[in-house]
Amino acid sequence: MKKILVASTNQQVIDTVQLSCKKYANYFDADFYTDTDAALSFIDYELPEIKVIDFTSSEIDCHRIIATINSDPWLHNGGIIAVVSNAAEAQAVDEQKDPNILIVQTLINFKENFTRLLRILWRNQHFLFNRGMQDNFGGKETGSFVCGCDPMDFRLYTRFLVGYMYSSNRISNDDLYSLQTVLMELLTNALEHGNCNITYEEKSAWLENGGNILSLIKEKCKQPEIASRKIRIAYAIGHTKSKFVIRDDGAGFDWRKYLNADFSEGTHGRGMKLSESLVSSLSYNEKGNEVTFEINNLKDAANTIPSIMQSFANINFLDRQIVCRENEMSNDLYFIVSGRYAIYTDNKLVSVLSPNDMFIGEMAFLLNDRRSATVMSIGGGKLIKVPKVSFLNLIRRNPHYGIFLSKLLAQRLLNSNKKIISMTAQLEELKKQVAIPSELPILD
User: 166 with 160: CB under 8 angstroms?
Assistant: First the structure.
């Protein structure tokens, strides 16, 4: 069940959400707030995955809500659906390139699209998590999206991918904007020039006559042949590199002409050249209807440090240096800034933690007990040491951090249970293949 916060006094927005949530009653639960402070309190304590922020409601301070979310991206990530009055306001909000905003919708579009938005969000729910709450997929994740002729689709998928890459510590703040720019540029080209076959001259003339690009796309899609075309986005997110492939159903183009051109030679191909400059590699297939690019991932480092952690001591560790020893009497909590850390119990390796795991030592911290494992740095790294008393004082001032820590531990327990179930199933399968007695034989 995914939680939805709705900050709105507009009955049209409220009715739209209620109607859509009835259709998906088993998947989404909406809470409605007409007061800014109450909405912020809900965000702090419930950490909702989806937030509908209604700029058409003058009684709601939407800018304050978004500023609060942006002030602590480590905790308050997720997805914002912004509702505005008209296209001009939508463009103004969109141009801010806020990474927390999934999509901006005019009121009319919101009423038309919200049910479809929920369907897309549910099908891709693994992208809607708070930092540290995601499942451990392993070293590489692969998948694909298929878009039609509605730009809303690839805007959402772009935000999914960029948000996931950022929250899983694979890209930095600068990389976030670069990846978003490249995906939007290449997907826009695939739709406009690829599937819709809109020429530069045709687009310029349409805009000069007072039209907008969305209306031109809609006009083109009245042709059944164009309306049936798709854009496919494939991704392979690895540990050190990530690869993206975008393919349209258009006729292709002479990509060499534009990639090899100089910026001074008119404005054609500027987007392609910009995209090429922002990634580690970019290439087209011979036909020109498929583009592939790669980026280098941030490795074993946190891309952001929560503001409440920044006042504590940073400790650098050398390769194979011990952080703490099993049965040691200490209960400090460690926030992982960079590096990898081996966890040993009874001198056996049981796990390796990275910045994606966020914390080291939470069991002794919470239970006020001896250390349950020995922790050793692998290849060097940096930790922030947080004394228990100091962190408890912070939780008293910021109770939602205590809730977040509880949710984080619950997610780790859930992931451990999944691993145990999987290993048990593998063991049972092995027992079927090999005769293994359920009990040890009695020795003479």
Answer: no
Distance (Å) of CA 421 to CA 149, 300, 411, 425, 428: 42, 28, 15, 6, 11
Does residue 13 come out as left (phi exceeding 0), alpha (psi in the -120 to 50 range) or beta?
alpha
CATH 3.30.565.10 for domain 136-299: yes
Counting beta carbons within 10 angstroms of the beta carbon of residue 88, is it exposed (0 to 12), middle (13 to 18) or buried (19 or more)?
exposed
The residues spanned by each domain of the chain are 1-131, 136-299, 307-397, 402-444
Q: Which of 349, 334, 338 is nearest to 380 (CA)?
A: 338
Q: Are 197 and 220 in contact (CB under 8 A)?
A: yes
* DSSP 3-state of 231: strand
- Which of 272, 102, 92, 267 lies closest to 187 in space, CA to CA? 272
* pLDDT tens profile 123-173: 887 776 656 555 444 456 888 999 988 888 888 899 889 888 888 888 988
Which pLDDT band, with edges at 50, 70 and 90, does 397 fall under?
A: confident
| CATH superfamily name and code, 307-397 | Jelly Rolls (2.60.120.10)
Look up the CATH architecture of domain 1-131. Answer: 3-Layer(aba) Sandwich (3.40)
Q: Burial letters for 103-114: b for 16+ Cβ neighbours within 10 Å, e otherwise? A: bbbbbebbbebb
Which of helix, strand or coil describes residue 47? coil
Who contacts 196 (Cβ-Cβ below 8 Å, separation ≥6)? Answer: 149, 216, 217, 220, 221, 226, 250
Give the integer Cα–Cα distance in Å for 372 and 321. Answer: 18
- Residues 6+ away with beta carbon under 8 Å from 215: none
Contact 375, 341 (CB under 8 A): yes
What is each CA distance from 30 to 21, 79, 123, 160, 417, in whole angstroms?
7, 14, 18, 21, 29
Task: Tell me the whole-structure pTM to 2 decimals.
Answer: 0.77
Determine the 3-state secondary structure of 313 from DSSP. strand
